[in-house]
Amino acid sequence: MSIRSTVRKALSGAAALAVGAVVVLAPPAAGAPRADPLPPRPAPSVDAALLHRPGTHVRARPGAPALPEDVSALSWLVADVRTGEVLAAHNAHRRLPPASTIKTLFALTALPRLPGTGTHTVTETELEDVGEGSSLVGIDAGRTYRVADLWRGVFLSSGNDAVHVLAEMNGGWEKTAAQMQAKARALGALDTHVVSPDGYDAEDQVSSAYDLAVFGRTGLANPAFAEYAATADAQFPGDTRDDGSPTWTYGIENTNRLVTGEDGVGRYPGIIGVKNGYTSQAGHTLISAARRGGRTLLVTVMNPQHGGGLAVYEEARTLLDWGFAAAGHLNPVGSLQPPPPPKTALAGAAPAPTRAPQPSTRTAYTWPAAVLITTCLAGAILLRIRRNA
């Protein structure tokens, strides 16, 4: 056999060997899916529009207790705080006056800007627009208060005077209302329209059981918010020194009876807050959360139609009891999670960032493959020549 024929056969065999080697060495293509050790657990199907329909909604599985029949509120909702799953609801998106439960949205908006570490000297102007008949904690103009005391006045006494002072510190009444409105939208709380940050009756001021649950759940994730909301009682300064420290104090108590157990309502086991409210237009409203057996549930109740001024607490208690008893026997009817952003870009929106081009896998492996091919060719040629010698 000629040398030329020998070289041709050697090249053919070496090329095949080299191609096989390159295939073995090549990594998976960029972005190729990887096999997971376990398949993802399918989430229960949720009809996103279900909670927007009027009426009561629950998806009970075998073993679930029946919903309580003695809840007269115009709107209510039960949710799991950890997952955000809505377990049951009645007229969840019905727009109603929220009263002081809207102070939860005020705290979500202003608390990050006004932490309880500083002091503030109150002016007459900051208190002059407090509505007639408002709940008050007892702030006096000319005195210097610790900001933490002002927040206790908001959460415990539902003090509209404290809200007015903090709102002015935050940039003003109207600016704060606008910030609250933007915060609600960002959280997916689309039923809320803010006019008066303290919850005082105002034309067109509305929220819903769904939105209030969103505010309560979001607030509980903030340690400062959660601490204020769970505090049953505290001392408030009656007079202060220049540094905000009190010369004498008086006691204030949380107006949420499920937290304090006052007026014959009885403290709810595992209660962790959140906020109650009342005005003549809104009736009684309540956001309440409790923890039991590793599960935290949140209930919102808006304007019970029967049972008097304390019915809002008893109806919340009934719904919390039901929620804990039904744990593990329900499929969710909705979610408190913010809606996903739209898939199509809005007009005028900034374009999505483009991904930088990635180096080609083929290019990255060109040099090692070339060395391997050259080595194989040389070895094959020498072997063929020796056999034919």
| Count of helical stretches | 12
Structural class: alpha+beta
Record field, number of beta strands: 12
Taking Cα atoms only, what radius of gyration do you get, to the nearest Å? 33 Å
The CATH topology of the domain at 72-335 turns out to be: Beta-lactamase
State the name of the first-level CATH class of the domain at 72-335: Alpha Beta
CATH superfamily of the domain at 72-335: DD-peptidase/beta-lactamase superfamily
Structural write-up:
By secondary structure, the protein is of the alpha+beta class. The protein has a domain at 72-335: DD-peptidase/beta-lactamase superfamily (Beta-lactamase). The chain has 12 helices and 12 strands. Strands 1, 2, 3, 8, 9, 10, 11 and 12 form an 8-stranded antiparallel beta sheet that branches. A two-stranded antiparallel ribbon has the order 4-5. Strands 6-7 form a two-stranded antiparallel ribbon.
